[in-house]
Amino acid sequence: MILSIAYFPPVEYFALLARYSSVYMDADERYQKQSYRNRCRILTANGPMDLSFPIIHNGSYGIREVQVDYSTDWLRRTEYAIDSAYFSSPFFEYYRDELFSVLDSKPSLLWDLDMGIIHFFCRKIGISPEIKTECRDLPGEDDFRSLIHPKRSPVFRNSPYWQVFRDKFGFVPNLSVMDLLFNEGPESICYLRNNY
After folding, report:
1. Whole-number Å distance between alpha carbons of 10 and 147
2. pTM (2 decimals)?
3. 7-19 per-position pLDDT tens digit
């Protein structure tokens, strides 16, 4: 299977990681605007909210060359939004500090930030796909690079799990995997394996 990197990837992304033992992350792709590479979606008291951050690409769009722009206060605003959205979820307190330490380490490259987040969620969910970075158009591989995108319908139809604001908005599918982990905790792996 081939995937692009993603910032707090959606639940369907991790359903794929749970399904495959070996995954190719495209390290040679070009940066794509308005994608999950530097944006995600969470559920807040006001409804679904997109979080994103600025990048610096200096005319180059190679994914491993894109830098994270820390000149604005996006990191503090992101952590505040996550705290506000999930402080009352059942498992948030168990994961918050370690997750925020990934963000607070301020990796200079988009690739490193996204991979750090992906590895964090793999560990906490309990999956360990072998992640490879050499993937030049592998024949016969399932290619999800352009299918998992904020502007497209989800690849999978997922069944509801408990969400903090479900009484107000109903179930909102395919949010960032942090929504699943903070609400379902150790049961996240069962959900991913049984509902996709």
Report:
1. 12
2. 0.92
3. 999 999 999 999 9
